[in-house]
Amino acid sequence: RWASGAFQLAAGCVMIQESTKKVVVVRDTDTGRWFLPRGRKDVGETLEQAAFREGYEESGFNPEPLPLLLPHRQPQSPEQKKARKADPNNMAHYLTTTEPVYITTIPAPPTGRRDGYEYTCFWYAASLPPDAVREENTGMEDEKSYVGKLLPYEEAIRVLHDPESFVVWFTYNKWLETCQALRD
């Protein structure tokens, strides 16, 4: 359990360009570090809004929600129930764009200035169109060295570290399963 000052909510996204099967990974050109776009949720912002805002700011690519067939424990919305009843054989009624694909939590240790806390990141699946173009200077001042790159899946997994490599693996495989299910 964590009281309000003992956790920080964050959101990020795994962006897949479906036409090329590539994944967006961000590289900090100052440090050489590779990572997925993510960041803190602003006050009043939903986690989903934060994920797509951070995706755009840190990578320069403008993501859209990617519907996936996901196991989850959230009840269907009234709109989903109505659509499912009207067309029970349409698999699209089982898709979700608003639920996180994965959640990671890492401890932020105490420093001389602050107590430790839990950094909890909600990950969303995102899509890029075939003609996506990276925009320059979309990040905050301290993110100017961030460059979003479209990498083949295997290369994205290779340059990322756990838990982000696993988040990409999980999301990418759920996307492949969704594509297969919709074809069937």
UniProtKB/TrEMBL annotation:
Looking at the record, the residues that make up the Nudix hydrolase domain are 6-173
| Keyword Hydrolase included in the entry's annotation | yes
Segments of this protein annotated with the region Disordered:
56-88
Q: Which GO terms describe its molecular function?
A: hydrolase activity
Cross-referenced InterPro entries: NUDIX_hydrolase-like_dom_sf (IPR015797), NUDIX_hydrolase_CS (IPR020084), NUDIX_hydrolase_dom (IPR000086)
UniProt keyword list = Hydrolase
Q: From which residue to which does the signal peptide run?
A: none
The family database entries (Pfam families) matched by this protein are listed as: NUDIX
- How is this protein named in the record? Nudix hydrolase domain-containing protein
Q: Which organism is it from?
A: Serendipita vermifera MAFF 305830
